[in-house]
Every structure is written in structure tokens, then in C-alpha cells.
């Protein structure tokens, strides 16, 4: 990368997304942390595979606020062919309510890094705001966007993301309400899920659980969730496939020593009666 990737606390190479035309272009997108003059920032870049190495080819968005914790970093290309990027509040909660800040948001970019003309806030990358630390993005077949988010100690969330909407952090969390702010579809209450990657399959969403060391199923119609896979280590991401789910477990270098449950790619065959 053009900048040295920061390894401080929760910083690092936090997101990468491979477009469908990668086999033709060798191009992808990444989100990483770096330090400059004692400050931590994130940037969104395009990268290209060259001789089995990734090379940064262009900076699409830079100087996203960072801190010791809460960097976001999930990236997905939506069904509208736009790049969606989650950013955390950089451990400065009030930034999430500042629509002029790139922190505490879900951002929406054209693939060349420009601002889409139909973004909800004119001349802004901000698609939604009021987020603490969103960690997963996925779409329903109808094109509805859903996101997982880490709460403050507990009150982890799954939200449906609406253009221009305010998701309340740090003003509200859990079942609290405030005019002009969205409440989550579900939240963990006093429990901690530490939800991460999320994917859709056959009418349900499945999301990874770092603290819960497993996989949860979310029914968006009834707004219910259940733990369906457990005791497999810190699950970072999930990908739905035919009759099963791929999951990747996450190392814990920044929070301790890796264990035998870390850095594994798992395939979990799911019986048909559990997928519906």
C-alpha cells in the first residue's frame, strides 16, 4: 500500500471487496488505517493484483477519522453498482451525529471515488449516519440494505438502512427513541453478540458473532433471531452457498494470543429445515 498500514489497536487492513469482473481486470477495493503526524486515518483505495502482490492504484476517499477503536471497515458493492463503506465513530461518539464528518457513517461512492448524484445528502458521501461501529452489510433480494453494528458494551444491532437516516448513536441505543432517529430491528439487550459479517439466504439473514463465537439467523419478517451455530471460535464473516454457509474465524492478535480456533475457513452444511 502507498501508506504503511497501522497495526494500532483495532486499526489495520479492515476491508476488501472483489468485484464480479475481477478475473478480467485484476482490480479490487480496500479500506485500511494509517498514521500521519500522530493521527490515525482510514482510506478507501483501488488495488490491483500484480505478480501475486496487491498494489494500490488510486485513492478513492481519504482522511476518514480514526482513533484507538471503532474504525468500521466493511465494504460491499451494492446491487446498484455503488461501493458502500462502513465507518466507526473513531472513539469520538459525537462525530456520528455530525453530517459533515466521515466518521460514524455508512458511505456510498461511485466506483471511481466520486459522489453519486442520487446520494441522499447533496455533495456528500454519507448514505446514513448516527452509527457507532457498523461491521456488516447485506442486501435482500428486493434491494433492501441491512447492517450489523456493535453497541456500547451491549445493545448490538441489526438495522435496515434507509437513505439519509439517522441511527441515533450516541443519543439513543436499544429500545430508546428520539424524533428523527431510527431504532434497530433487533438488538442484543444486555447480551453482547459483537456481530460482524452478514449475508442473505432464502428469506433470512445470517450474521457472524465474534463474542458469541458462532452464527445467528435473523428473520426480517418476524424480526427474530436465534443462535444456530456455536463454539466455533470468533466468527468474522459469513458467505451463503448452496445448502450451507462458509464462515471465517478471526485472529485475536490485537486482543491477546491466537488460538487453534483462529484463522480458519469453515463450511457448515445446514439442513433444509434450518434454513427456512
Give the key terms.
19 strands, mainly beta, Quinoprot_gluc/sorb_DH_b-prop, four-stranded antiparallel β-sheet, 6-blade_b-propeller_TolB-like, Glc/Sorbosone_DH
Report a brief summary of the structure:
Helices cover 3% and strands 43% of the residues. The protein is an all-beta fold.
Please tell me about this protein's structure.
- The chain has helices spanning 22-25, 272-275, and strands at 13-17, 27-36, 39-50, 53-65, 75-77, 83-86, 105-109, 126-129, 134-139, 145-149, 157-161, 186-187, 195-201, 204-209, 214-219, 224-230, 235-241, 244-249, 265-269.
- By secondary structure, it is an all-beta fold.
- Helix content is 3%, strand content 43%.
- The protein contains 2 helices and 19 strands.
- The strands form 5 sheets. Strands 1-2-3-4 form a 4-stranded antiparallel beta sheet.
- It comes from Oceanobacillus polygoni.
